[in-house]
Specification:
The model has no long low-confidence stretch (mean pLDDT about 90). The protein has a six-stranded mixed β-sheet, sandwiched between helices. The protein has a three-stranded antiparallel β-sheet with strand order 2-1-4, with helices on one face. It starts with a strand and ends with a helix. The protein is an alpha/beta fold. A hairpin with a 6-residue loop joins strand 8 and strand 9. It is globular and about 50 Å long. It binds adenosine-5'-triphosphate (ATP) and magnesium ion. The site of magnesium ion (MG) has 4 residues, from helix 1.
Length: about 270
């Protein structure tokens, strides 16, 4: 990791208060995550471990019960609007054309429509959306919807982008294409990306570092650096280095799925067995 972190999350906990006498839910407990400028970092964890909660806190949509979010070494006065955020659902508005969907963030931040259109149109080709400017979202394929939502997030112009399972609903082939495309875009723009996925292979393939979260309450149970060389091509997923990482990351997830808490593993690794 780089010496100065772009985004640093310290001791973050979140308990949702139970409504009308219901039980409280502790979604996150003492979570710490650090990302250097321009890094691509992923979080994997079982459903319900608090990944979207974490993103909602970083994006300033909800407040943590404890802990802090530091951007460029300080707590921003207002987190809301400080980072680009693509929520778990693509959230395209069905009554706006694809172009008008992609400019939504710009317009909300006060950019005039004509200028917003100009900036968005300049990116349509790179985002594989050329020719679909005037289409309605319902007419787009799943991959195109996600690219439109990603373009909206990119256009917001923030250095840090939070992407919550952007490819979760796509078929395997479209997903693989989208991963390669995202790496190309990231390599060109070098934004700082924090990415949530259920898919360990996707996390390794894309990332400089992967955090594994335990089942609820979500805590960081493992953090692994991915030192595979870049640019990466899909063949890398068959390499021994990749498989060793995959095994290392899968173990705590299996443990979490079996209902375990924090992970202690003394079984021999693939690396030791080879
Ligand atoms: N607004 C809320 N009020 C009460 N409980 C909530 C609220 N939002 C989330 N939770 C609970 O907090 C826990 C974490 O939810 P969250 O959506 O952050 O998990 P997740 O890791 O993103 O799951 P998934 O992988 O399925 O998207 C869950 O038990 C969920 O029911
Ligand atoms: Mg989620």
């Amino acid at each position: 990791m780089q010496a100065s972190s772009k985004l640093k999350i310290e001791g973050l906990s979140k308990t949702y208060k139970g409504s009308s006498g219901g039980e409280n839910v502790t979604a996150l407990k003492d979570v710490g995550i650090e990302i250097g400028a321009g890094e691509f970092v992923s979080i994997v964890g079982p459903s319900g471990c608090g990944k979207s909660t974490l993103f909602n806190i970083i994006a300033g949509l909800i407040r943590p019960s404890r802990g802090s979010v530091l951007l460029d070494g300080r707590e921003p006065d207002e987190l809301l609007g400080s980072v680009g955020y693509m929520p778990q659902r693509d959230c395209l508005m069905p009554w706006r054309t694809v172009l008008d969907n992609t400019t939504l963030g710009l317009e909300l931040s006060g950019v005039r429509k004509k200028e917003a259109h100009k900036r968005a149109l300049a990116e349509f080709e790179r985002f594989g959306l050329a020719g679909f400017e005037k289409h309605w979202p319902a007419k787009l394929s799943g991959g195109m919807k996600q690219r439109a939502a990603l373009l909206r997030t990119f256009l917001a112009g923030r250095d840090v982008m939070l992407l919550d399972e952007p490819f979760g609903a796509l078929d395997a082939l479209t997903r693989a294409n989208m991963q390669e495309w995202l790496l190309d875009v990231w390599q060109e723009d070098r934004k700082t990306i924090l990415f949530v996925t259920h898919d360990v292979e996707e996390a390794i393939y894309l990332s400089d570092r992967v955090y594994v979260m335990s089942g609820r309450p979500g805590r960081v149970s493992l953090c692994v650096d991915v030192k595979l060389e870049r640019p990466r091509k899909s063949e890398i997923t068959m390499s021994p280095e990749f498989l060793i990482l995959k095994q290392k990351l899968l173990r705590p997830l299996e443990e979490a799925a079996a209902g375990g808490g924090l992970f202690i593993d003394d079984r021999p690794t693939l690396e030791e067995q080879i």
